[in-house]
């Protein structure tokens, strides 16, 4: 799992790539926490490089979404594909979060 | 294939490595591999984090087989008796503030497997799962 941060205007984009599972969820939570310490108004989680997610990974995304909501920010998710997109949909995250296929779409929607 | 796993979350990596090796050796399709990896992550995490917590137990036994065009996964552990499939499905309609991540793992196992069963026998929890394998690619056009 690799987690990297980019800043585009007033949006913090966090790319999560590889596998988000029981082994990697803890370090992903820690890394995301650091990026949320500044309480960015807009957080975009880009999952285009993610090829595996389990419920431990969903926990990471849910936690970030709650945190951002709690301080009054906005969070969106983009780029999920294949198995990752399917797991998000089966888990109802497509109704819970704003999911976009493309990063540009997500950025324009803030 | 049969392997024994110790009571440690690090052992999930061992299980995944074994799954990959087995799937390569018997040509398991990508969808079945991903489904198997998902259910191993979910069920082994539950067993190691809750079922076997805080005491010494026999190893967890993971068995992978091909049976009647299915990938069959059997996980046996000597932890507290627990039928994961008895748990209620999570309410997916709750708003964000009320959503809890608990329960999603077993829900995903049910969704990704074609068959699932649990029995408790000889002080062992035994979970058996089956995932249909994709038909082998059509060879009719080969060589054209």
Description:
The complex is a heterodimer of chains A (110) and B (144). With 110 residues, chain A is of the alpha/beta class. Chain A has a single domain, classed as STAS domain (Transcription Regulator spoIIAA, 2-Layer Sandwich), CATH 3.30.750. Chain A contains five helices and six strands; from the N terminus they run ββαββαβααβα. Chain A has helices spanning 25-36, 55-70, 82-90, 93-96, 103-108, and strands at residues 2-8, 11-20, 42-46, 50-53, 74-78, 98-100. In chain A, strands 1, 2, 3, 4, 5 and 6 form a six-stranded mixed β-sheet that branches. In chain A, strand 2 (11-20), helix 1 and strand 3 (42-46) form a beta-alpha-beta unit. Chain A is globular. In chain A, 43% of the residues are buried. Chain B is α+β, with helices and mostly antiparallel strands and 144 residues long. Chain B has one domain (2-132): Heat Shock Protein 90. Chain B is 32% helix and 25% strand. Chain B is built from three helices and five strands. In chain B, a hairpin with a 2-residue loop joins strand 4 (115-121) and strand 5. In chain B, helix 1 (11-25) packs antiparallel against helix 2 and helix 2 packs antiparallel against helix 3 (104-112). Residues 139-144 of chain B have low confidence and may be disordered. The chains are: A alpha/beta (110), B alpha+beta (144). The A-B interface holds A 21-23, 52, 54-56, 58-59, 62-63, 65-66, 69, 83, 87, 90-92, 95-97 and B 9-10, 12-13, 34, 37-38, 41-42, 44-45, 92-93, 95-97, 99, 101, 104-105, 107-108, 111.
